[in-house]
Specification:
One of its GO terms (cellular component) is plasma membrane. The protein is mostly helical. It has two domains: 108 residues; 45 residues. Helix 2 packs across helix 6. It is globular and about 55 Å long. The two termini are 37 Å apart. The C terminus is likely disordered.
Length: 207
């Protein structure tokens, strides 16, 4: 991205130029795009992010490197996979079924329920919040995952295709430019830190 977009406004403390450019680009896209398409794409991205937040919360609570044992890690992965699989199965069954019979739900919902309580009972948490934490873990995050995936299943196929195309474009951009730019910035910062240590006498250069 152009360096000017990273300039911070002294008064507001925000990247004002980047905000204005993003606002203009969003306004142009919104002006030439149907409201229904925009709402579906926004719904997909919002629900997907909320689902990832719930998954991230479970990972943070149940996995700590060097603390979580291999057995507990395997139990956590299995229960999380069952929660995701049963939630996806429920959403697919609801979206594809015409009569919405109870047979599919009689299979997927008990799996989700047993997986959630199995994670609660048999996989100990590796991290406890110091000041405040989300209550009812893992029941509440698991419910959030199930609801978000179910709502994603109610969105039409064409919206997912558009979302997939936009996501693919951003992934390609990240690997072709963003990843290398981030690595270059990190390397420059590390070199500057080492040079500062040399100047302060904390690190000796080998010649």
């Amino acid at each position: 991205m152009p360096p000017c977009l990273a300039i911070m406004n002294e008064k507001t403390g925000t990247p004002l130029i980047a905000t204005v450019v993003m606002l203009a680009a969003t306004a142009v896209i919104a002006f030439f795009t149907l409201l229904g398409i925009l709402s579906n794409l926004l719904s997909i991205s919002s629900l997907f992010i909320l689902m990832l937040v719930a998954i991230g919360l479970l990972v943070r609570r149940y996995y700590v490197s060097g603390v979580t044992t291999k057995a507990n890690r395997i139990k956590f992965i299995v229960f999380l996979a069952l929660i995701l699989g049963s939630s996806i199965g429920t959403a697919i069954y609801w979206a594809s079924s015409t009569d919405h019979g109870w047979i599919g739900y009689a299979i997927t919902l008990p799996i989700w329920l047993l997986s959630t309580f199995g994670l609660w009972l048999f996989a100990p948490q590796a991290r406890e919040p110091k000041f405040w934490g989300v209550p009812l873990v893992p029941r509440l995050p698991s419910l959030s995952i199930a609801i978000n995936i179910f709502l994603l299943g109610s969105i039409d196929k064409k919206s997912f295709e558009k979302f997939g195309i936009f996501t693919l474009v951003m992934i390609v951009y990240y690997f072709l430019y963003g990843l290398h730019a981030s690595y270059g910035t990190a390397k420059e910062a590390s070199s500057a830190k080492q040079m500062k240590n040399v100047e302060e006498g904390g690190l000796e250069l080998e010649i």
